[in-house]
Structures are given as C-alpha cells and as structure tokens.
Design a protein that fits this description.
Strands 10-9-8-11-12 form a five-stranded mixed beta sheet, sandwiched between helices. Strands 1-2-5-4 form a four-stranded mixed beta sheet. The chain has 17 helices and twelve strands. With 423 residues, the protein is of the alpha/beta class.
Length: 423
C-alpha cells in the first residue's frame, strides 16, 4: 500500500488506483497499469455525466506521462465506451488525462507552460515530442482552460485589431479588454464575418453593454461595431491616424525624390540621394532628432518648401493628440478643426485626401480625444503576439498560435505540475 501511494505521487494519478508497475525493455518505457477509482468510472469523456455501459472500445491504451529521470513513463488502462444520452457512444473519462489526449494532464500542463516561456524547438527536444504535438497540446490546454468561467463577462471597453502572422495575407483578429489588459478572444481572419463571430459569441445583451471600442479606421471593423454595439462609442486609434499622415508625407517625399531624379527611370543625383536618406528625419519626433537629422530637415526647409510643409502638416496632426494626452480635449478639438482647414488649403493632393479621410472618421477621432482612448494596449499585445509567432515558428495551424497567445496573454497559462502558485 505504501509503495502504491508513492507511485501515485510520482505518476500524478492520485485519483486512480495503481495496479502494478513494470519496465518494458523493448520500448524502454516504464509502464504503470492503472484504473479509475470506483466513483470516477463510467462517466462520459465529453461531459463527465454518468452513463450506461456500451462496449470495451479498442481495448487497453497508453497515455504518455512525465519522464522519471531519463526513462519515459506511460500509463496503461482499459478504455471502454459508455452510451451518453447527449454524445452517444463515447470513451469513458479518465481522471489523469483530457478527453481524446494521448498524454496525461500533468504532461500537457508542463508542455503548455514551457511553450509560453521558451521556444517550441526547446520544448520538443526537452519533452521528446514532435513539433506538431506541441501545437496540439497548446490548443487542447487553451481550449480546456477557456471553458472554465466566462472570459467575456463584464466587458465594457474593448480594442479590436488584426495581426499578420504569416505570408500570403494570413491574419488573426484580436480583441483586448482595456480594463484588464488581457487578450479575451482571437480568431483567424480579417473581415466583417470574423468580427461578427465575436459579437455572436458575446450575444446581443452583452454587446449592448459595451461602452467604448477602439480600433483603426478599417471599415470592416467600424461597420460591424456600429451595427452590433448600439450603445458604444467608437474611438479611432491616434497612432493609426498619425500613421495616415506619415504615409501621406512619405508619398510627397517620393514624388519630390522622383522629380529630383528627372522622373521615373532617371539617374540618381546628389539631391535625390539626400532626399532618399531623409526619411527618418521626416518621420521621427523633432525632439528625438540627431544633429545630422536636424541639419537635413533644415536643408529640406530651404530647398524643398512643399515637402517641408507636408512635414509640418504631419507634426500638426500629431500635436492634436499630444494636447489630448495633456488633458486639454477642447483645445485639441479646436486644433483639429484648424488642421483640417489647413490641409484642405495646402494644395498637396496627399494631404487633401487625408483631410477628407479624417472628416469621414471625425466622430471616432473626437471620441479618442475626449476619452483619451487608443489602441496602444492592443498594439502592445500585437507586439507580444509577433514575438510569440517567432517563438512558435513552425505552427502550421493558426489555432495553435491562438492557443499559445491565450495562454501567454489571456491569463490561461496553467501552473507547473504539483505547484500551487500560478505561472
């Protein structure tokens, strides 16, 4: 009896009975024969409800457990099926493993924890499993953890954005809770149907309780939010709005550069080379310019007034949001009005078009100014997701990447086996 309890602790099967332990010399694994305790037997593997006997299934099967030193360990037990009223013939639930898994819960949890804190290659080598197995375990653990509690309960202020995770326009749409800072939902896709699936899951009652939504100016987000969240105000992300101005400025710089070269296909000149290397001087915050970059900006002001005027327009729009961050929303709105008038009269086509675009998104921009709401938190999550994408290099299934993201950024990472403190 004493040795049986020791084996229960070593193998992590305290809710099961260890019938015997032997070493399989051919497979070089330690095999522990186990069975569920009487109270845990004959339950549906999907819902956990008691059900009547159906058949013996495929006989005995094995589950990979944590290694005992250099030796692999497996659990071996019968896997009969029960006739569940809801799910029909189903393999019985076992207390040491998740339904449909080939590994024990402790093994899954350790792999998931390692996948969050280290690279996938290191996890595969350390745990002696295949790359695809790591992705399957991450997806399984994340799905199991997300079923505990309601992650969408109490949502009031959310941010929506997309992340490119693979070449070929492969995107994942993410939803972040501004109040908790956690990733609450993610799904592959970048269109209205993808955002609609989130609000379908949220339901009409809870969608009506959303008060603030931050996003960029993408219409595939704005249209769905306006339709599904009647009581929410939609805020345009200041970073993306200023990025629109930066793109317009770069378009003007390229036009001036082409003119300095004598048109498309012309040869490079000293002036065109200087303009080509002036990109960072035009993009950066004026307070962060180096001495050489400041000198280049002064040269542009003397030799290319049109380009310098475009730079001033970009900085003027950035100043609007700086006023908002300083707690001066009324002054920021006034500055925005003046900026729109300036851009309309500037006779620079790129900024005239930008003024029209800002007028279209005027309400969302004013909400961002008034409530000081931005997508900075969502962009921070996206930056971490890009790091996770690099760590998870080789995941062919986006659901494995989403599962890893939910574990790392959604607060679903399990604790290490036999540890009480969460990761």
């Amino acid at each position: 009896m004493r040795f049986a309890r020791i084996w229960q602790r070593l193998l992590g099967v305290e809710r099961a009975v260890v019938e015997g332990v032997e070493f399989d010399s051919e497979a070089e694994v330690l095999v522990a024969r186990v069975r569920p305790r009487k109270g845990a037997s004959r339950r549906c593997g999907r819902c956990g409800r008691r059900a009547s006997w159906y058949d013996r299934g495929e006989g005995r099967r094995r589950w990979r457990s944590l290694d005992l030193g250099p030796v692999k360990a497996v659990l071996e037990a019968d896997a009969p099926r029960v006739n569940c009223r809801e799910h029909g013939p189903t393999v019985i639930a076992v207390p040491w493993a998740r339904h449909g898994a080939g590994h024990t819960r402790m093994f899954d949890d350790l792999v998931a924890w390692l996948a969050v804190h280290t690279s996938r290659t290191a996890v595969a080598q350390l745990m002696r499993v295949a790359w695809r197995t790591v992705g399957a375990i991450v997806t399984r653990v994340s799905r199991d953890a997300s079923q505990v509690g309601d992650r969408l309960a109490g949502l009031r202020r959310i941010g929506i954005d997309e992340l490119s995770y693979k070449k070929g326009h492969r995107y994942v749409t993410c939803v972040v809770d501004h109040d908790t800072g956690r990733l609450v939902w993610a799904a592959p896709g970048r269109d209205k149907a993808t955002v609609g699936r989130f609000f379908d899951l949220l339901g009409p009652e809870r969608s009506a309780m959303i008060t603030h939504v931050s996003a960029d100016g993408a219409e595939w987000i704005a249209d769905v939010v306006d339709q599904r969240c009647p009581n929410a105000v939609r805020a345009a992300d200041p970073f993306h709005v200023v990025a629109w101005a930066t793109d317009a400025l770069d378009q003007v710089r390229r036009d001036v550069w082409n003119t300095a070269r004598g048109g498309r296909g012309g040869r490079a000149t000293e002036a065109s080379k200087a303009l080509k290397n002036a990109r960072w001087a035009l993009w950066k915050d004026p307070d962060d310019l180096s001495q050489a970059q400041q000198a280049r900006l002064d040269w542009i002001a003397r030799t290319h007034p049109r380009l310098h005027r475009a730079w001033a327009l970009k900085e003027g729009l950035r100043w609007v949001f700086q006023l908002s961050r300083q707690g001066l929303p009324r002054l920021a709105v006034t500055a925005l009005d003046r900026w729109i008038g300036w851009a309309r009269r500037c006779r620079i086509p790129a900024f005239v078009d930008l003024a029209r675009r800002i007028v279209r998104h005027r309400n969302a921009i004013e909400v961002a100014i008034e409530h000081r709401l931005s997508n900075a938190l969502v962009e921070s999550v996206n930056t971490k997701l890009r790091l996770i994408t690099r760590m998870a290099f080789g995941f062919h299934d986006p659901h494995a990447l989403i599962g890893l993201a939910m574990l790392a950024l959604g607060g679903l990472c399990p604790p290490l086996p036999a540890r009480t403190r969460p990761a």
